[in-house]
């Protein structure tokens, strides 16, 4: 009975995953939004030429797959791992040195308020509207008290988080499929576009990585299987829950974890699937209690003026912005909260949401959502260049980076890398044994796909998901190798 149910669930999940990946591949063949994220017109023939290069590279990887795997087996030692991690740190330090920015947008507010907290003062009014960013400020303030609350300290911590995440990618992939696949995953992650260019930007996109990878590494044993003791489930659920508080989209990982527990645990232990949700509620309540009792923010003000979740769902249907951040929608919600209660604002949002969907019609909604998906899933820069474009300390360096020639090469590198990554996800469908990690990764990708259709979107929101994409893609390219996922010895 248990095997039959799991078999059905697996087929359903893999089928949905396959349809989604085919759609994403189709969108990436037709378009690329890398230049668009910088408000630059995509050069003529860029998409076709970069696509051709990606196809050639993929064809070579498939044609010489055995030789590639043998190569990684030969270099799979900890000297190579250490060298790659050192290269990663150097690349990130180089970006911070040459392409550093003066903190602006939400990033600037968070850095400024971390210093405010260190000085023992309450947070600015921004956090009444967006209390979801309080955890990040608290983390940076804690670091600021241990060291100094300046930008460079926070950026060095950001580099530490990204590099630690890359090492955990290596560890998880090694446990699942052997050290050679671990090194392959690490190599990809070291030169992964957003892991390099987000180094100067200390925000939830990169900080959230550790809240996914640390519990995953703890849950997967040396044989690559789920080690779901009660204590590990509880600890993992606490960390996943903190991740959700840090960045709301990480609720997907909590849901995926719960489904995995239901699918892979035996008999009465399947009831453990409810634990992640119970712990999520407890952690959320405890966190809210702590911040309100500390006096860093006024609970009454938050209850009155914080934006309801319907704001982001309503904004997600903005036709002119294709579901991305819209200043006019921010001002609209802000003005409504000055006049009406949050409950009334929620009702107004839902009414306007229905109006926006209805006005577009069936054909209009299809076109709108395809365009929204294109902006989300076809930007190989993951919006990183847009963020380091804002108030650069050395604008001449950024200009040289994106000028006529180097800009094309950089975008081309990103697009080829991105297409290779997505195609590897398609190959992962061929994996004969869909173990706990594979199903968790597929569920998470499915979850992010639908979440970012419903919610306000940006390509950078995918950064939290990319470690799973990297590992799963590398497993896809290793299809047919004698590794654990095929039930054979290494």
From TrEMBL:
It comes from the Bacteria. Keywords: Cell membrane, Glycosyltransferase, Membrane, Transferase, Transmembrane, Transmembrane helix. The chain crosses the membrane at residues 12-31, 46-64, 76-97, 127-144, 151-170, 190-214, 234-265, 271-291, 412-431, 437-455, 462-480. The keyword Ligase does not apply. It is a multi-pass membrane protein. Its main location: membrane. InterPro entries: LipidA_mod_glycosyltrf_83 (IPR050297). The keyword Transmembrane helix applies. It is found in: Cell membrane. PANTHER family: MANNOSYLTRANSFERASE YKCB-RELATED (PTHR33908), MEMBRANE PROTEIN (PTHR33908:SF11). This is Glycosyltransferase RgtA/B/C/D-like domain-containing protein.
């Amino acid at each position: 009975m248990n095997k039959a149910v799991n078999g059905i669930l697996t087929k359903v999940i893999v089928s949905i995953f396959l349809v989604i990946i085919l759609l994403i591949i189709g969108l990436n063949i037709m378009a690329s939004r890398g230049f668009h994220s910088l408000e630059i017109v995509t050069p003529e023939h860029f998409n076709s030429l970069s696509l051709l290069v990606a196809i050639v590279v993929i064809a070579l990887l498939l044609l010489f797959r055995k030789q590639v795997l043998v190569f990684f087996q030969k270099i799979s030692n900890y000297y190579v791992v250490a060298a790659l991690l050192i290269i990663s740190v150097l690349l990130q330090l180089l970006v911070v040195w040459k392409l550093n920015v003066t903190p602006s947008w939400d990033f600037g507010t968070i850095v400024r308020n971390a210093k405010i907290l260190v000085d023992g003062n309450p947070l600015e009014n921004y956090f009444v509207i967006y209390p979801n960013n309080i955890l990040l400020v608290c983390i940076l303030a804690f670091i600021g008290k241990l060291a100094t609350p300046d930008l460079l300290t926070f950026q060095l911590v950001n580099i530490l988080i990204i590099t630690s995440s890359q090492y955990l990618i290596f560890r998880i992939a090694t446990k699942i499929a052997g050290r050679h696949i671990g090194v392959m995953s690490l190599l990809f992650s070291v030169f992964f576009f957003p892991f390099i260019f987000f180094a100067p930007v200390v925000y939830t996109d990169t900080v959230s990585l550790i809240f996914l990878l640390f519990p995953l590494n703890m849950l997967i044993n040396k044989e690559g299987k789920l080690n779901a003791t009660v204590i590990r489930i509880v600890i993992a659920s606490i960390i996943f829950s903190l991740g959700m508080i840090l960045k709301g989209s990480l609720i997907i990982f909590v849901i995926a974890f719960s489904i995995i527990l239901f699918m892979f645990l035996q008999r009465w232990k399947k009831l453990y699937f409810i634990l992640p949700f119970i712990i999520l509620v407890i952690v959320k309540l405890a966190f809210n209690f702590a911040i309100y009792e500390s006096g860093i923010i006024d609970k009454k003000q938050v209850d009155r003026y914080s934006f309801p979740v319907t704001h982001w769902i309503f904004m997600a249907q903005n036709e002119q912005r294709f579901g991305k951040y819209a200043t006019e929608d921010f001002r609209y919600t802000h003005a409504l909260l000055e006049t009406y209660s949050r409950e009334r604002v929620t009702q107004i949002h839902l009414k306007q949401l229905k109006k926006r969907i209805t006005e577009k019609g069936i054909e209009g909604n299809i076109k709108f959502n395809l365009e929204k998906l294109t902006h989300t899933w076809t930007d190989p820069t993951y919006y990183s260049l847009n963020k380091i474009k804002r108030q650069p300390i050395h604008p001449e360096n950024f200009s040289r980076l994106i000028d006529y020639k180097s800009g094309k090469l950089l975008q081309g590198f990103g697009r080829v890398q991105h297409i290779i990554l997505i195609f590897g996800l398609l190959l992962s469908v061929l994996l004969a044994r869909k173990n706990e990690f594979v199903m968790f990764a597929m569920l998470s990708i499915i979850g992010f796909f639908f979440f970012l259709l419903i919610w306000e979107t940006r390509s950078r929101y995918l950064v939290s998901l990319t470690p799973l994409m990297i590992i799963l893609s590398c497993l896809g390219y290793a299809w047919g190798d004698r590794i654990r996922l095929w039930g054979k010895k290494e």
